[in-house]
């Protein structure tokens, strides 16, 4: 369900918005928010709710790993997009689950007319590293249609 009204979105966003995602702001177009949800005692897995204002998306990026690795997104409120390099964008709604293999260039974020939230967690692996790349151009982003 699309949410342009922030009050309605906040009601649907059960995990909460969290704080402005200032540490990663340079890798996002628009405002995002981050709320830590917990982690395993060894820190191998941590979960965070990421909230995107309408039109916000992260840059292209890769979750590198020599073995294992990658990322899983569980969409919890609003509507967004996910796209792997060379493939069409996938529309995301509440309940969508995206399993991103390691070493795949991709981006994700809100649709231009909806707030969006997903829980993100990195898949444990060996030699893991996030590589941030170029912005998703306005031209490519605005060309996406439901």
Q: How many distinct folded domains?
A: 1
Question: Which CATH C-level class is it?
Answer: Mainly Beta
CATH superfamily (homologous) name: Jelly Rolls
Shape: globular
Strand content: 35-45%
Uncertain ranges = none
Whole-angstrom Rg: 14 Å
Largest sheet: 6 strands, antiparallel
Q: What is the H-and-E element order?
A: HEEEEEEEEEEEEEEEH
Output the strand order for the largest sheet.
Answer: 1-3-4-13-8-11
Q: How many strand elements?
A: 15
User: Helix tally?
Assistant: 2
InterPro entries: Cupin_2, HNL-like_cupin, RmlC-like_jellyroll, RmlC_Cupin_sf
Protein name: Cupin domain-containing protein
Descriptive report:
It contains 2 helices and 15 strands. By secondary structure, the protein is mainly beta. It has one domain (6-141): Jelly Rolls (Sandwich), CATH 2.60.120. The strands form 5 sheets. It has a 6-stranded antiparallel beta sheet with strand order 1-3-4-13-8-11, with no helix packed on it. A 3-stranded antiparallel beta sheet has the order 10-9-12, with no helix packed on it. Strands 2-5 form a two-stranded antiparallel sheet. A hairpin with a 6-residue loop joins β3 (32-39) and β4. The model has no long low-confidence stretch (mean pLDDT 97). It holds the Pfam family Cupin_2. Residues 50-110 form the Cupin type-2 domain.
Brief summary:
It contains 2 helices and 15 strands. It is mainly beta and 146 residues long.
Output the keywords:
single chain; 146 residues; mainly beta; Jelly Rolls; six-stranded antiparallel beta sheet; 2 helices
């Amino acid at each position: 369900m699309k949410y342009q009204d922030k009050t309605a979105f906040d009601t649907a966003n059960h995990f909460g918005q969290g704080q402005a995602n200032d540490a990663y702001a340079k890798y996002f177009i628009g405002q995002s928010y981050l709320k830590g949800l917990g982690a395993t005692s060894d820190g191998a897995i941590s979960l965070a709710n990421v909230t995107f204002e309408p039109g916000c998306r992260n840059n292209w990026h890769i979750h590198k790993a020599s073995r294992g690795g990658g990322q899983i997104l569980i969409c919890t409120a609003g509507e967004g997009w996910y796209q792997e390099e060379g493939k069409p964008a996938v529309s995301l709604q509440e309940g969508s689950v995206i399993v991103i293999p390691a070493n795949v260039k991709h981006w994700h974020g809100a649709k231009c007319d909806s707030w969006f939230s997903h829980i993100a967690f990195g898949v444990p692996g060996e030699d893991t590293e996030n590589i941030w790349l170029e912005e998703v151009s306005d031209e490519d982003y605005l060309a996406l249609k439901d």
